[in-house]
Amino acid sequence: SEIAIRWQDGSEDYIPCEKLRAGSPSAETTGERDLLGRRYGGTDQKAYPGVTVRGWRIIGGYAVQFEFSDGHNTGLYA
Fold this sequence. Notes:
The chain has 78 residues and is mainly beta. It is built from 2 helices and 7 strands. The chain has helices at 17-22, 27-30, and strands at residues 2-6, 12-16, 32-33, 39-40, 53-59, 63-68, 76-77. The chain has a 3-stranded antiparallel beta sheet with strand order 5-6-7, with no helix packed on it. Strands 1-2 form a two-stranded antiparallel sheet. A two-stranded antiparallel ribbon has the order 3-4. The relative contact order is 0.23.
């Protein structure tokens, strides 16, 4: 139900999967803005009860991409 992250300084954080999913930085979740700042797409959904992380992969040297149990997998977490 949580993702554990150990940072280079040895500290650790535990992030609930539901919170991680709600905070996805993908255009599917946050939408996209045009030059005038109007938002297109995205969702206002804040809760993802029961969502878990099924897997993840490292993207280059800068991000992690999670695969969630609801099928979402397009957010890149820097």
